[in-house]
Amino acid sequence: MSRIRHEAPRIWPAAWAAALVLTACASNPTPAVREPGPAALGVAGPTPTSEIDAKWAGRGDPGELAKAIEALERAIEREPASHALRLRLAEAHALMAQSIVVLGWKDQRTPEAHLAASEAAALTVIDALDHDTAEAMRTRTIPGTTKLTTAEGGAALYWLAAAVHAGAELAGYQALALDQAFARRVAEHALPLNDQVDRGGLHRLLASIAAHPAAPQLRDLERAREHADRALAIDSGIANTLAYVEHYAIPAQDRAAITDKLQQLTEQRVTTPEDALARARVEQLTARIEDRLE
Amino acid sequence: MNPPKHLKLVKRWLARCAIGAALVLPQSLATPAADAQARWVVKLGTAAFAHAPIAALLAKVSTVLEAEHPGRFWVKRLVDGALTRDRAGLARVATGEAHGYAATFDELVGALPDAAALNAPFAFDNDRDADAVLRTTGGAAIGDALATLGLRLVTIGPCEARVLFSRTRALQKPGDALGLSVARGPNPAYAGLAGALSMTQIDADQKADVRDATLSQLAAEGELLEGGHLTLTDHALECGVLVVSQRWIDGLPAQMQKTLSKLSRVLDGGEATKAQRAARTAILERAKAAGVEITTLSAKERQAFVAATREARTQMNGEAGSLARKLSLAAQAK
Question: Model's pTM, two decimal places?
Answer without folding.
Answer: 0.86
